[in-house]
Write a structure and sequence with these properties.
The chain is built from 16 helices and 11 strands. It is an alpha+beta fold. The protein has 2 domains: 19-126 and 158-400, DD-peptidase/beta-lactamase superfamily (Beta-lactamase, 3-Layer(aba) Sandwich); 403-513, no CATH class. Strands 2-1-11-10-9-8 form a 6-stranded antiparallel β-sheet, with helices on both faces. The chain starts with 25 loop residues before the first helix and ends in a 26-residue tail after the last helix.
Length: 539
Amino acid sequence: MKPFASRSPVRRPPGALPAAFRTAVVAVIAVFALAAAVTVTVAPGTSVASSTASLDPASIDRFVRDYVKETRLPGAVVAVTRGDRVVHTAGYGRTASGRPMTARTRVPVASLSKAMTALAVMQLVEAGEVELDRPVRQYLPEFTMADRRAGEITVRQLLTQTSGMADSAHPDLTLAQPRTLEQAVAAMRGAPLATDPGRRHRYHNPNFFVAARLVEVVSGRPFAEQLSAELFEPLGMERTASVGSTTEMPDRARGYVRAYGTTVARPQPRWFATGSHGVVTTAEDFAQWLIAQNNEGVSADGRRIATARTVALTHTPPGATKDTDYAMGWWVNREGNGPPAIQHTGQLLTHNSMATLLPEQGIGIAVVTNTGMIAGDDAPQIMEGLVDLARGEEPEVSAPFSMTADWVLAAFTLLAAGLGVRGVVRAGPWVRRAVRRRWWVVALRLLPQALPILLLAQLAALMGLLMNRSGTLAQVAYAWPALVVWAAVGALASGAVLAARGLAFVRHRRRVRRGAPDAVGASGEVSGPAQPAVNTATS
């Protein structure tokens, strides 16, 4: 989901910052730019250089194992298919509970679930029970919002995320998490729309909560049962299921966050997930899903789950909106000179995933790692190498940008702490100079000290603007710990300097009242009582 450059096609939604916050986040943008430009790569002559540049099991294992070793990635699973056969499925490293990861380890695929929800809706379209361009409310009368335009939202607009719903109007991850699809739909009754339906694309999980609830109501059975009966069982995905929340995932979706070159095991907070990011699967099972996607809806053993036209439609962005290449649970990545890739990423705070289809070659690739979003953007990095292999190119181990950026932030953090100590020590001399200036000059000189405090207070909002998603400061601390540490130390240092200057000023005023206005020393203390002048002249 994210705004950093890459060699191979990897879709990350763009973000932008408004001018009002430009000054406050200039340092953050500098870190992003540096991290995007500087990647950690394996030096020539290492084992990666001996790759056969072919997408075969040995080359896949060699590259992923090198990546795990070089980046200290705790664990990952990979699935690779070509046409109607499985090329390779494997696990590497360990889970947060210490169990070896294998091709049969159950992992959350997060937002890769959206494509499955979209196909479940399209199966109802094929059956004549749903029409894509009819209003959602025709099938789901309970779907209401505090915006009359919501009645115009069509089924197609839900699946292409052009409904007008957005995090800016309904930040679902910052709100109390529902427990059922019915509650998730009801939670939107007080929310407005951000844009007219069909006008713009806005990535928003509740689009797929509503789509999953529509599947429940139209099919007449719980969403998880419908997915199992119509998708997972026909494809032979025996260890795959749709769960209601992250607490129902294996080991409660416990994983890792990256910080300062190391990884720390962390629990995943409870998020409601049904329809949007609730599928749990294995590398072996997900390979079957990739085959069906590249094989026009037909499984490896010849069972059809959807028509070729339906599958193609889920891979095709809507023509009505020109601001996106998002189809139905898939991005169409047209970057670079090569043929387009069909992709999607998925992220929890403790896991990230990515799936890529290369239609011209009939190749499907999926990666899930047990590191979280932003700082642990490992799945897209591994995907780049595997796509390079698929295209006959030698892959490089490019580490997550945080492995460079965190050390830049560490330097900024130490600098902020040092400047804070210096400011506290020199509070007295600062006050001595300040009292001789006009009040508005003093206020302007104090203003920069407030910016780090403002940055920390608004960090979650700023990151939400960068990532096109709304979250809390606690969630940002999961996603990028080093960034929050830097912001917190900067705010603490600025607060300490302001407090020290305030205290020194109060002491100075007390001395003024006692008749000793110029007795402020370097530490803000008065050196001693003023002595009367002594006349040394003789009579």
